[in-house]
Amino acid sequence: MKQLPASYYEMLEEMQAIDFVITDLTLYLDTHPNDLQAIQQYNYYIQMRKKVKKAFEQQFGPLTNFGYSYSGSPWNWKDAPWPWQV
Question: Contact 35/28 with Cβ under 8 angstroms?
Fold first, then answer.
């Protein structure tokens, strides 16, 4: 397996932290659907997640397939390690 730079792990950890916040806010909003501040926080973290994901994929390749991530040329979905392997 190829050696990965520290920034790979840092960006992956940042996305995991953002995903945790999004999940937590989703659960909260399921029971507090009119909390405008929570909705704004949710939308903020969704936007942040998209930016971090885009930056990660531009530098290291796709995170997901099935139409959720773009591929570089040549096709780079086959390039390991995949995020769940690290």
Answer: yes
Q: What pTM did the predictor assign?
A: 0.77
Residue with tokens 């050696």: 3
Query: Which residues make Cβ contacts (< 8 Å) with residue 59, sequence separation at least 6?
Result: 7, 8, 11
pLDDT at site 62? 83
Encoded tokens for 12: 């992956």
Rounded Cα distance between 57 and 35, Å, is 33
Question: Before 74, cis peptide (omega within 30)?
Answer: yes
Tokens 């397939």 label which residue? 65
Domain range list for the chain: 7-59
Neighbours of 56 (CB within 10 A): 21
Neighbouring C-alpha atoms within 13 Å toward the C-beta of 55 = 13
Summarised one tens digit per residue, pLDDT across range 68-85 is: 666 666 666 666 677 777
